[in-house]
Amino acid sequence: MAQVGLLEDNARIAKLCATMLQYAGHQVIVYEHPRECLDDLLPEADNNASKTYHAITKRTLPVLPVDVLILDLHLPDMTGIDVLQFLRANPRTRSLPLIFCTAATASEVANALSIAPQASFIEKPFTFQELISAITSALDMNGNGSAN
After folding, report:
1. SS3 of 69, please?
2. Is 38 exposed, middle or buried (0-12, 13-18, 19+ CB in 10 A)?
3. Is pLDDT of 142 > 80?
4. Which of 54, 63, 73, 124 could join 104 in a cystine, given CB atoms 3.0 to 4.6 angstroms apart?
């Protein structure tokens, strides 16, 4: 199964998602804060974007700790759109499969999908089947269907 990242600031929702995903056979890394998630996915990032980009492109990109990221758009300290823009701007995470799991407005979801058109979307509240189907679809779209 897959290694799933979950960026969700609501502890109850995070626990529910993690339990559902583990029941389906996935491993889950829960990120409670946007910076924690970005630090894990972009550990080499610094304030000098040009230097970082050249350092990354000159060597093989390291394996990401997750195969897919479930991203809430309403987060503390930084919006999900901000997180999304950081992820899409970095070559290491540009093609990371994403699932927006949110109660955001239609315009917020449309904005997120304009940045990451291949991302999936599930609306809170969601069912077990919706969550698992979104994971399967996101992995299949990126050719990661046989992920660990």
Report:
1. strand
2. buried
3. no
4. 73
**Nearest 5°: phi and psi at 71?**
-125, 120
Residue entry with tokens 């998602």: 17
Query: At the top level of CATH, which class does the domain 3-127 belong to?
Result: alpha beta
What's the mean pLDDT in 76-93?
A: 93
What single string gives the DSSP state of each residue in 106-136? HHHHHHHHHH-TT-EEEESS--HHHHHHHHH
* CA distance linking residue 83 with residue 28, whole number of Å: 19
Q: 29 forms bridges with which residues in the sheet?
A: 5
The tens digit of pLDDT for each residue in 11-38 reads 999 999 999 999 999 999 999 999 999 9
Residue type present at position 128: F
* pLDDT for res 148: 40
- Given pLDDT bands bounded at 50, 70 and 90, which one contains residue 60? low
CB-based contact 65:40 (threshold 8 Å): yes
Contact 121, 109 (CB under 8 A): yes
Residue type, 132: I
Distance of CA 115 to the CA centre of its chain: 13
